[in-house]
Amino acid sequence: MLPGFLTDATSVDADLIRVETTGNATRVFPVTQTLPSEVAIRPFRSTPMGSAGYVIRASAAQRIRGSVSLRERHTDLALYSPFDEPGSLLTRVLSDPALCRQLNMTDQKSTDVARSDIAENLVRHQFAEEHPIRFFAFKFGKGLRKGLRNAADHFAQQKKGLERRVIPFEG
């Protein structure tokens, strides 16, 4: 299915096409296009984790090249955010069904493929150590603001057909 989709992808009017699923619900809009390869195209509003599979137009890659967010944030959070740059500068859609997924999302748990041997850095920031209450208040306030923004956006976008849906994997 993926080779046919890649041939058809040139007809999709979007900067970025996400072709991955994590199996979690994603906030999506109704199908806007169905390709000859029988893959539906949906705009999406979530910031889903995972950047194992996407197609990006060369012009969009040029436009976001050098973005500070791509160096400071996880790639998926930077590319898929409808609120923050560079994601907010891109028209983003996803394939339904998804055409790939990360190996850790499969039943192949016994393989060492795609496993990292990088040790987790458990060192806390100095500010958090010296001012735990202020740090907690900062993190809590930031999370509350993001939650309210997301809730307001969700209800506003429901008028356009926004719904939460699990995008299946076409294995």
| Amount of helix | 25-40%
Strand content: 5-15%
Distance between the termini: 9 Å
Alpha carbon gyration radius: 18 Å
Kindly report the average pLDDT value.
87
Number of strands: 7
Distinctive features:
two-stranded antiparallel ribbon, 171 residues, 6 helices, 5-stranded mixed beta sheet, alpha+beta
Question: How does this model look, in words?
Answer:
The chain is of the alpha+beta class and 171 residues long. It has a domain at 2-105 and 161-166. Helix content is 33%, strand content 15%. The protein has helices at 2-8, 58-64, 68-72, 75-80, 126-130, 132-157; strands spanning 16-18, 25-28, 33-34, 40-43, 54-56, 92-96, 163-166. The strands form two sheets. A five-stranded mixed sheet has the order 3-4-6-1-5. The longest helix is centred in the last third of the chain and has 26 residues, at 132-157. The mean pLDDT is 87.
Ordered list of secondary-structure elements with their pairings:
Layout: H1 2-8, E1 16-18, E2 25-28, E3 33-34, E4 40-43, E5 54-56, H2 58-64, H3 68-72, H4 75-80, E6 92-96, H5 126-130, H6 132-157, E7 163-166
Parallel strand pairs: 1-6
Antiparallel strand pairs: 1-5, 2-7, 3-4, 4-6
Briefly say what this structure is.
By secondary structure, the protein is α+β, with helices and mostly antiparallel strands. The protein contains 6 helices and 7 strands. The protein has helices at residues 2-8, 58-64, 68-72, 75-80, 126-130, 132-157, and strands at 16-18, 25-28, 33-34, 40-43, 54-56, 92-96, 163-166.
